[in-house]
Specification:
It contains 13 helices and 10 strands. The chain has 405 residues and is α/β, with parallel strands linked by helices. A 7-stranded parallel sheet has the order 1-4-6-7-8-9-10. A 3-stranded mixed sheet has the order 2-3-5. Helix 12 links the parallel strand 9 and strand 10.
Length: 405
């Protein structure tokens, strides 16, 4: 298995794709115990085959299951990539806390980083009037979801669920002729962002998350698929620390999470791992995002064959230049976003091609796989999401003509 291009620019996406009304209804019924897990699994299998077929028809090379096994609370859902793990881990106790709405405020001290709830983010403080205006379009339409707390030793209990994810994707790939597929899984650092009432230290907590989630990574890669490690926490957590820490303190906080991730990935071939970094999927100003130049070297220590990151958003599109000063290790690829989840405007294929060529000029044409900034499902209307994937593949064809002849 190789992630590198040979005769053209390959295409993929970050993972989440729009759920159908039928699947959303099945998720709702299962959550209310109106249908069994087996009935939900039947619905998932049919849905995954349809979404893989549509990816192939759109021209996507490296496909996935649309994250259909990661239940969305509604058609608008910014947190399914994280919330899905709550049903796959033991040691958790449900709460009525919604961290996106919580008013809890916690403060960091020099050398000690503490994460806050969403309303206490510095971006939200700076633009509080806009965030609290229901007509602004920020967080509009999301359903309230609660997060549990850790009250006992973390264990992985999602064997049946991840087996379903793997089985459905492999069957859909066989039915559609897709050769390469990936399944997204939560990182230890993101897993550790729930309230902890059991582990004595941050290090114990993060490594417990790593040991638990490793079972999911192994289940995916043992099936011959690529595991995508979803880890917005590497970049996004910066905005959750108040007061603003030094970059050095934040990187020390983050380095522990990277070391724990590498511990969880031990023995897994790098070509079967891709790492996803982003600054959060909500449609806010993002003026307090930490710049990629501060994170890239640490990201490159992660034992992965490819790195996906935002390369098209209005806040980060200029950062392709970072790769001029931070060489990509040999044999690895970058998987930059060349269309964005954060705008309803569908990027022109020529712009997509230009972005691909910018990256290729720096790291080499063989080392750029064209992708999305983040998941499109739950963040954009389905019609717009699929139009963006069509523009992505059309732009990749243009770039391929210019780069490969």
């Amino acid at each position: 298995m190789t992630l590198q291009n040979t005769d053209r620019v390959q295409t993929t996406h970050v993972g989440s794709l729009p759920r159908t009304p039928r699947l959303l209804e099945a998720n709702r019924q299962h959550a209310q115990s109106a249908i069994t897990f087996e009935q939900l699994t039947d619905e998932l299998a049919a849905g995954v085959e349809d979404v893989v077929r549509r990816q192939r028809e759109t021209g996507v090379d490296v496909v996935n299951d649309g994250e259909y096994g990661h239940t969305m609370s509604s058609a608008v859902d910014y947190g399914a990539w994280w919330n899905y793990s709550f049903s796959r881990l033991g040691g958790l106790t449900p709460t009525d806390e919604d961290r996106w709405a919580s008013t809890e405020r916690r403060r960091s001290s020099p050398g000690h980083v503490v994460l806050t709830s969403f309303p206490d983010r510095r971006d939200r403080e700076r633009f509080r009037e806009a965030y609290e205006d229901p007509t602004s379009g920020i967080l509009t339409g999301r359903s309230s979801t609660t997060q549990p707390k850790i009250t006992g030793p973390l264990t992985y209990t999602g064997q049946e669920a991840v087996a379903s994810d793997v089985r459905n994707l492999k069957a859909a790939m066989a039915a559609t002729g897709a050769e390469t597929g990936f399944v997204a899984a939560l990182s230890p650092g993101s897993c550790a962002r729930v309230t902890n009432e059991y582990y004595r230290t941050d290090e114990e907590l993060v490594y417990a998350c790593a040991d638990a989630m490793r079972e999911e990574y192994l289940a995916i890669t043992a099936a011959g698929l690529i595991v995508q490690i979803d880890d917005p926490s590497i970049a996004e957590s910066w905005d959750q620390v108040n007061p603003e820490p030094t970059v050095e303190d934040y990187l020390a906080f983050t380095r522990l999470r990277v070391e724990a991730l590498n511990h969880a990935l031990r023995g897994i071939p790098e070509e079967q791992v891709r790492f996803h970094l982003c600054w959060g999927s909500w449609h806010g100003p993002h003026t307090t995002d930490l710049e990629l130049k501060h994170l890239v070297d640490l990201m490159l220590t992660i034992n992965a064959g490819g790195y996906t990151f935002e390369g098209a958003s209005a806040r980060h599109a200029h950062e392709w230049k970072v790769w001029k000063e931070h060489p990509l290790p040999e044999g690895r690829v970058i998987i930059p976003g060349v269309v964005s989840h954060s705008t309803n405007v569908v990027e022109h294929p020529e712009l997509v091609a230009d972005r691909i060529e910018q990256f290729a000029a720096v790291v080499g044409r063989e080392n750029v796989v064209a992708s999305t900034d983040c998941g499109l499902g739950g963040r954009l209307h389905p019609q717009i999401a699929w139009a963006k994937l069509e523009s992505l593949t059309a732009g990749a064809r243009l770039a391929s003509e210019r780069l490969f002849g």
